[in-house]
Amino acid sequence: MADFFTDADAYVIASYTDGDAELPDGIIDFADDVEDADLNGFNVSVIGTGDTSYDDFCSAVDDIEGRVKEAGANIIAPGLKIELAPDDEATEALKQLAATITSI
Questions:
Q1: Are 67 and 28 in contact (CB under 8 A)?
Q2: For 44-58, what is each residue's pLDDT tens digit?
Q3: pLDDT band for position 35 (50/70/90)?
Q4: Distance (Å, rounded) from C-alpha 6 to C-alpha 76?
Q5: CATH number at 11-102
Q6: SS3 assignment, position 83
Q7: Rounded CA gap, 68 and 102, in Å?
Q8: Which stretches within the chain are classed as H helix?
Q9: Which of 13, 40, 43, 80 has the lowest CB atom count within 10 Å?
Q10: pTM score
Q11: By the 8 A CB rule, do 73 and 43 touch?
């Protein structure tokens, strides 16, 4: 974990939500490591995709954002949840997030 968060101005963590509100296998270890990390002073935003046909839409975003907050990170923008593939609204939200990040 220490070698992932180094000296960048900001970080974006992205994940989809798998199945019924589950973290995908590929990010579980990272998410677990975040719990033990000291992220004080790090600027982080979390984005993800999901499917609104599930009760817990994009719960991976909430899960990971909660973990990075607990680890002390500065959340630079609310978690961005995207339905399946980005539409025009999601694309605009991503552009706004990019503008926020580049202004840090």
A1: no
A2: 999 999 999 998 999
A3: confident
A4: 17
A5: 3.40.50.360
A6: strand
A7: 20
A8: 25-35, 59-70, 88-102
A9: 40
A10: 0.91
A11: yes
